[in-house]
From TrEMBL:
<feature type="transmembrane region" description="Helical">
    <location>
        <begin position="150"/>
        <end position="168"/>
    </location>
</feature>
<dbReference type="GO" id="GO:0015109">
    <property type="term" value="F:chromate transmembrane transporter activity"/>
</dbReference>
<dbReference type="InterPro" id="IPR052518">
    <property type="entry name" value="CHR_Transporter"/>
</dbReference>
<keyword id="KW-1003">Cell membrane</keyword>
<comment type="similarity">
    <text>Belongs to the chromate ion transporter (CHR) (TC 2.A.51) family.</text>
</comment>
<feature type="transmembrane region" description="Helical">
    <location>
        <begin position="86"/>
        <end position="112"/>
    </location>
</feature>
<feature type="transmembrane region" description="Helical">
    <location>
        <begin position="60"/>
        <end position="80"/>
    </location>
</feature>
<feature type="transmembrane region" description="Helical">
    <location>
        <begin position="175"/>
        <end position="192"/>
    </location>
</feature>
<dbReference type="Pfam" id="PF02417">
    <property type="entry name" value="Chromate_transp"/>
</dbReference>
<dbReference type="InterPro" id="IPR003370">
    <property type="entry name" value="Chromate_transpt"/>
</dbReference>
<feature type="transmembrane region" description="Helical">
    <location>
        <begin position="124"/>
        <end position="144"/>
    </location>
</feature>
<keyword id="KW-1133">Transmembrane helix</keyword>
<dbReference type="GO" id="GO:0005886">
    <property type="term" value="C:plasma membrane"/>
</dbReference>
<keyword id="KW-0472">Membrane</keyword>
<keyword id="KW-0812">Transmembrane</keyword>
<protein>
    <submittedName>
        <fullName>Chromate transporter</fullName>
    </submittedName>
</protein>
<feature type="transmembrane region" description="Helical">
    <location>
        <begin position="15"/>
        <end position="39"/>
    </location>
</feature>
């Protein structure tokens, strides 16, 4: 590849690759609590870069949630693919997972030495409410899809009933998550079919 072709690649497609990598690197670096907790952050970045519309992003989240693997990684693949094909998908997912690899190596070394310290355990425990809030925010944003709440209907009430069952089953009766998932699926079939 000649020098002129390389320069034009870096200005056009290369700039998109760099932006994809940097965007998902930042998201991967600040993602606490897993994929669902950072969906709103990814959505903000994707809409800001105009890689997808709000409706496209909501559909991508649905597809990523149904696909095997972590939802954040699946979203990175879908956004990268929609933006720049297979190479874009590889670049975006590389940006998403590289911070985790780096942070895991650093944190493992730190926790190996200081993991039993009380302040470390308290700090990790304190992150739980923040993660819960981020997940709830993402769920509300996905449910509303950028539109005002349309009102309560039978589907909303059925979804709320499944949610309440799951929370009570986990919190009060300490049911195994597999039982919660199975019963919730059966309730969903009963309510929505």
């Amino acid at each position: 590849m000649g020098r002129r072709n390389l320069v034009s690649l870096m200005e056009g497609e290369g700039a998109v690759f760099l932006m994809l990598f940097w965007t998902f690197f930042k998201v991967g670096l600040i993602s606490f609590g897993g994929g669902y907790a950072i969906l709103s952050i990814i959505e903000r970045e994707v809409l800001l870069q105009q890689w997808m519309t709000s409706v496209d992003y909501t559909q991508a989240v649905a597809l990523a949630g149904m696909s095997p693997g972590p939802i954040a990684t699946n979203i990175a693949i879908l956004v990268g693919y929609k933006t720049s094909g297979i190479t874009g998908a590889v670049v975006a997912v590389s940006g998403m997972i590289l911070p985790s690899v780096i942070v895991v190596i650093i944190v493992a070394g730190f926790l190996f030495k200081a993991g039993r310290e009380r302040w470390v355990q308290v700090a990790l425990y304190g992150l739980k409410p923040m993660v819960t809030a981020l997940i709830l925010y993402a769920a509300i944003r996905m449910a509303m899809n950028g539109q005002p709440l349309l009102g309560i209907n039978i589907h909303t009430l059925a979804s709320l009933a499944i949610f309440v069952f799951a929370v009570i089953g986990i919190m009060k009766y300490r049911l195994h998550p597999l039982i919660i998932l199975s019963v919730s699926a059966l309730m969903g079939i009963a309510f929505f079919v």
